[in-house]
Input
Amino acid sequence: MSAGLFDLEGKAAIVTGGAMGIGFGIVKRLVGAGADVLVADLDRDLAASKVAELDGPGKAAVVRIDVAAAHAGDRLVDECLSNFGHVDILINNAGIYPMTPLLEMSRESWQRVIDINLTGLAFISKAVGSRMAEQGTGGKIVNIASIDALHPSMVGLAAYDSSKGGVLMFTKAFALEMAQHGVTVNAIAPGGISTEGTAAPLAGSGMTEEQMEAMMQQFIAGIPLGRMGDPDDIAKVALFLASSASDYITGELLVVDGGALLT
Output
């Protein structure tokens, strides 16, 4: 019975930013549960190489996409329909997190973060949600937010934090709108997750390697469970929200942070 709750056989999903990190962790879990997955990423070659590693009952296809592009949502729907015939699950994972204090940030840099993390997410959700409503069979939309939607982690993430706070409220507002169509909309708030890109913002901050290591150790010391998360910690929660196990949950934010916000 429990296996059936998480069985996604016959479902088709879209995962943005699916070529690495949390995104690819989610792709692996969905494919493993039987879903056919469209892996959408700016780096198509990387996505294709990662898809070749998959071993599960579900199938996967790849599309190159900039989620901030005006018609990204329509294109993702078209690609999913072309490959799988329908779309049942959307995981909005793509995002960027440059570390720049607001006093040093250009308007263009701020806008790029908002365009990718919030505006792109919203209008991809609109396109996919419209298709789900037309299909009349319900659907699942899962947005990857952040614990920074609730509490800032550090100086330098004002744009990122603002975008993720927006994702939280968008999730609630869109959940209310889509409920009549049987589509649930929820969000996950990861804490510190070890991925290929975890150190990128720090590496561009001008800190030495020793300073970056000290900051990381200080961050881990504040996590009650005593470790950074890994992509599968988020992927398992995404699988839950994409499955029938979460049918009576909508408009919610699930914090997955090892207890970091408790401190």
